Automatic annotation (TrEMBL):
It is found in: Cytoplasm. Belongs to the gamma-glutamyl phosphate reductase family. It is an enzyme of class 1 (oxidoreductase). Pathway: Amino-acid biosynthesis; L-proline biosynthesis; L-glutamate 5-semialdehyde from L-glutamate: step 2/2. Gene3D superfamilies: Aldehyde Dehydrogenase, Chain A, domain 1, Aldehyde Dehydrogenase, Chain A, domain 2. It comes from Deefgea tanakiae. Keywords: Amino-acid biosynthesis, Cytoplasm, NADP, Oxidoreductase, Proline biosynthesis. This is Gamma-glutamyl phosphate reductase. Residues 11-282, 308-374 form the Aldehyde dehydrogenase domain. It catalyses: L-glutamate 5-semialdehyde + phosphate + NADP(+) = L-glutamyl 5-phosphate + NADPH + H(+).
Length: 418
């Protein structure tokens, strides 16, 4: 395959499709979402067979259990994928919304209209449900999209692509509104992020290697959805019951997601009582603990954490634990070593919780809740493209609105500027 030529064709088709999608009515977009959901349910056996191929290869390549878990499709996850698309039908269509109107002294009326971004290139991990979610959100928000999922999910993504194309065509929308790149060659990513004539924005979802590549090579604007070095800080005024529940859920609910806690910070005044309770749960669940010297004094089985641990996203049953003197030291640690994704405080103290909200520089800042809640469904967006770790355009879980922008609109009656 001539990858440059192939990607140019993909880009050109996407640009043409984006113009049709921008003016597609809500009924047609909803019909496409329902038709894709129907096709996914009908083709469940085909999808499972394609996924089995991917799983066999991934196992042979020695993929970690948490990554296999994220790659695996089951009848239940297929049903959830279809249900997610049907739930998008019920979401209000953001395209064409108008508001903020003001009359100016000149007589013109100035306001705003919500519009699609155009063509969105999305590079993401080997998680097949993201293919359906991203396709659905881009369709509903009137965009065209070019999807590049992780290579481990290649066969399954191609099977989902067939359902998406069929659904678009059934609804009378251009099949190339959603294109899933048909090669796992990373040269295609290189083309995608430099085709500024065809692509309006790139959304990379991934870790450090992807960040480096995108930061170095992208010529298209980027909304980064990067790694999650998420923290929970247990304050000395925490409710111990809440602290234990949150420390357990934020780490062990699932190990691979970006909103999983990687570092637990504990106030020195409460550490000796709370840490043994939390450690008992981690031991039972097989979580390896790496701690600072003060942590090791309380938990002799914790291995010594290095400076590198504070900067590491394990995506695995491993946690780093640091005992801190106060809230300021906790926030300093988070703002220094975190990835500005999601961080939580456990405290019953109102003033400290307000200070944490104001001073922690992350896309989601939580009081007395698990970091695992940083998610589009959980925040009521219906679904999510991912969790933006950027500050510009969209921050945190990105849903339909994050895939649009606003243009100014002006109503006049023949006014001219003096
Ligand atoms: N903020 C968010 O919304 C989310 C963030 N993540 C983050 O993703 C990471 C885990 O997923 P993982 O699959 O390991 O992530 P990777 O970064 O390894 O892979 C993600 C995607 O990026 C591609 N990629 C990676 N490096 C390059 C490169 N140098 N050039 C071109 N393409 C590249 C991969 O392609 P290939 O298949 O070829 O490796 C894959 O499609 C974690 O850091 C997690 O926090 C995950 C989900 C959501
Ligand atoms: N929104 C997701 C997190 C996204 C994410 O990190 O995905 P992944 O790395 O594929 O497990 C959730 O909480 O389920």
């Amino acid at each position: 395959m001539d990858i440059k030529q192939y990607m140019q064709d993909v880009g050109r088709n996407a640009r043409a499709a984006s113009r049709l999608m921008a003016k597609a009515n809500t009924g047609a977009k909803n019909a496409a979402l329902n038709a894709i959901a129907d096709a996914i349910e009908r083709d469940a056996t085909l999808l499972l067979a394609a996924n089995q191929k991917d799983m066999d290869q991934a196992r042979a390549d020695g993929l970690e259990p948490a990554m296999l878990d994220r790659l695996q499709l089951t009848e239940k996850t297929i049903a959830t994928m279809a249900q997610g698309l049907r739930e998008m039908v019920a979401l209000p269509d953001p395209v064409g919304e108008m508001g903020d109107f003001k009359y100016r002294p000149s007589g013109i009326q100035v306001g705003k209209m919500r519009v699609p971004l155009g063509v969105i290139g999305i590079i993401y991990e080997a998680r097949p449900n993201v293919t359906a979610d991203a396709a659905g959100l881009c369709i509903k928000s009137g965009n065209a999209t070019i999807l590049r999922g992780g290579r481990e999910a290649f066969n399954c993504n191609q099977a989902i692509a067939a359902c998406v194309k069929e659904g678009l065509s059934t609804a009378g929308l251009p099949a190339s509104a959603v294109q899933i790149i048909e090669t796992p060659d990373r040269a295609a990513v290189g083309e995608l992020i430099t085709m500024n004539e065809f692509v309006d924005v790139i959304i990379p979802r991934g870790g450090k290697g992807l960040i480096e590549r995108i930061s170095r090579d992208a010529r298209v604007p980027v909304i980064k959805h990067l790694d999650g070095i998420c923290h929970v800080y247990i304050d000395n005024e925490a409710d111990p019951l809440k602290a234990v529940r949150i420390a357990d859920n934020a780490k062990t609910h699932r190990y691979a997601p970006c909103n999983t806690m990687e570092t637990l910070l504990v106030n020195e005044q409460i550490a000796a009582t709370i840490l043994p309770q939390i450690a008992a749960i981690y031991r039972e669940k097989g979580v390896e603990m790496r701690g600072c010297a003060a942590t090791q004094a309380i938990l002799p089985d914790a291995i010594a954490a290095t400076e590198e641990d504070w900067r590491t996203e394990y995506l695995a049953p491993i946690i780093s634990i640091r005992i801190v003197s106060d809230l300021d030291q906790a926030m300093d640690h988070i703002n220094t070593y975190g990835s500005h994704h999601t961080d939580a405080i456990v405290t019953e103290n109102y003033t400290k919780s307000r200070q944490f909200l104001r001073e922690v520089d992350s896309a989601s800042v939580m009081i007395n809740a698990s970091t695992r809640f940083a998610d589009g469904f959980e925040y009521g967006l219906g679904a999510e493209i991912g969790i933006s770790t950027d500050k510009i355009h969209a921050r945190g879980p990105v849903g339909l609105e994050g895939l649009t922008s606003e243009k100014w609109i002006v109503f006049g009656d023949g006014e001219i500027r003096a």
